[in-house]
Amino acid sequence: MSRLVLVSNRVADLSKASQAGGMAVAIADTLRTRGGLWLGWNGKIGDRNDELRTEPDFTKFGNATVATLPLSAREHAEYYVGYSNNVLWPVFHARLDIAQFEAGYYQRYLDVNRRFAEALRPLLRPDDTIWVHDYHMIPLGMELRKLGVTNPIGFFLHIPVPPAQTFLAIPEHRELARGLASYDLIGLQTKVDVGNLIDYLQDGVFGRILQDGRIRAFDRELSIAAFPVGIDVDSFIDSRPKRATAKPLPAIRLLGVDRLDYTKGLPQKFRAFSRFLEKYPDYRSKVILSQIAPPTRETVTAYADIRHELEMLSGSINGKFGELDWVPIQYIHRSTPRKMLVDVYRNSRVGFVTPLRDGMNLVAKEYVAAQNPDDPGVLILSRFAGAAEQMKEALIVNPYDVEDMADAIKAALDMGQTERRERHEALLAGIRQDDTFVWCRSFLEALDNVRRRAFLAVPTSPSEAARRALQEIELARVSPRVRAN
Ligand code: GDG
After folding, report:
1. How much distance in Å is there from the Cα of 436 to the middle of ligand 1?
2. Ligand 1: nearest atom to the Cα of 231
3. Is the same domain home to 257 and 207?
4. Which of 14, 290, 296, 316 has a 20 to 30 A CA-CA distance from 163?
5. How far lies 93's CA from each of 146, 208, 352, 469, in Å?
6. pLDDT tens for residues 372-392?
């Protein structure tokens, strides 16, 4: 089996990966068994001299080596904060209104990708399989190709692909498309994303779908397919406490766990909970919403704005409905240890996941995995999370529709044990079937097939597959409402 070489903006700590419960477990396992190398930023911000550095620092973990490089302050400001998090992140989440298309950001983004490619080039062996991750690193494959690398290179995008018209608004969309076309395989989270990317490549840069399902663009042929990211289900089940260790709550808990990001629909969630308390006053003093929202990307203005908005909203809702012995919203702007998180998942009657756009959303899967199968809670899930394509037995909601969400909270709280168990069983079977190990294995198998030129077929009509996926979500969304009426 060929050696695996990973590249991503950040690297995981391989000594702790097995406790993280997410993709890092599957990746760390694969690196250990196949042997491999993982290159990324070391998280440190250095000076201008670091912009010339192409010799990484190395740390060995058995068969696997982690190689890291620093970023200069300018690279951090323009490649990471600027282009990655102020352009690509908002645009790919359909937030053109807050994208900052500043001159110079793209050039720095390209420079860092080139530097990482130059650092990787001398470390590569002829039969390595290269796997590049996420939006920070789109041009990396192209830069490796320029340096003469002919190895199979795959790319996985963790965030959603926007519709073609939104993608086209990025001034450098053509350069990004050229970067994407340098890969042999592009993995996306959902069928809707696959449809969007193929539509864009056809409409935006005159890509063509070939007979064998590959796409031809910029004189290269590539495969595009959905590989939904999963979790290590057993790690959530095994680490569940035998007895509940959390303090018994005086109220029934609805739970949100989201990085404090404007894509996660947190104000919408708070407003829906407020509307629920207004519309169904019998539940006051009986139900609370616990929102764990650890800080993230605090140097980006839009993140400071969302923080202020949430502080105002939780304050005003607590002021409006709170009693001396009941505060409706517990808003925790800190990270919670993972063990405690699993416990809180299990002790919450409702998992409330409301992103406005999300590549997948692992919290939805973790909540389901952590439930007691005999008396499980109910998952309320935004139709705009990638996870909604798989998790149709959740109560699927439109996060922009406050009434819809308020009614879903009521339906979740009123749902009988039999229905809760049926829905949970089906959801658990789904996340088991597509867990993190399947995700990792199936992507790498597909990439190996590319090497053997047994190409992956994508749907011949990607828009049709995407349309069908959206219709199925719409049907899943409508049915719980019918049930609740
Ligand atoms: C990106 C995409 C895609 C959260 N708070 C705490 C904590 N977490 C953990 C959760 C979960 C992870 O962070 C969040 O994952 P999500 O998938 O929900 O969201 P993103 O961070 O936006 O991830 C997303 C993902 O990449 C993978 O491809 O699904 O769409 O945006 O694992 O448990 N963990 C701890 N304390 C916290 O307070 N310990």
Report:
1. 14
2. 32
3. no
4. 296
5. 30, 25, 20, 18
6. 999 999 999 999 999 999 999
Residue 40 and residue 133 in contact, taking contact as beta carbons nearer than 8 Å: no
How many angstroms separate the alpha carbon of residue 361 from the centre of ligand 1?
Answer: 7
Give the Å distance between the CA of 112 and the centre of ligand 1.
25
Counted residue by residue, the chain has a size of 485
The reply to whether 219 and 238 lie within a common domain is no
Through-space distance between the first and last CA atoms of the chain, rounded to whole angstroms: 56
CA-closest residue to ligand 1 atom 23: 361
Ligand 1 neighbours by CB, cut-off 6 Å: 22, 158-159, 229, 257, 259, 292, 294, 335-338, 341, 358-363, 366
**Which CATH number do you get for residue 402?**
3.40.50.2000
pTM above the 0.90 mark? yes
Instruction: Output phi, psi for 388, to 5 deg.
Output: -65, -20
d(CA 162, CA 165): 8
Check residue 14 and report its DSSP letter.
Answer: T
- Same domain membership, residue 156 and residue 253: no
- My answer on whether 88 and 25 are in the same domain is yes
Expressed as residue numbers, the domain containing 96 is 4-226
Nearest ligand 1 atom to the CA of 353 is 18
Structure tokens at 339: 């063990």
User: Do 100 and 157 fall into the same domain?
Assistant: yes
Q: Which residues are catalytic?
A: 158, 358
| pLDDT, tens digit, 9 for 90 and up, residues 133-164 | 999 999 999 999 999 999 999 999 999 999 99
Residue 21 pLDDT level (bands cut at 50, 70, 90): low
Which atom of ligand 1 sits closest to the CA of residue 261? 22
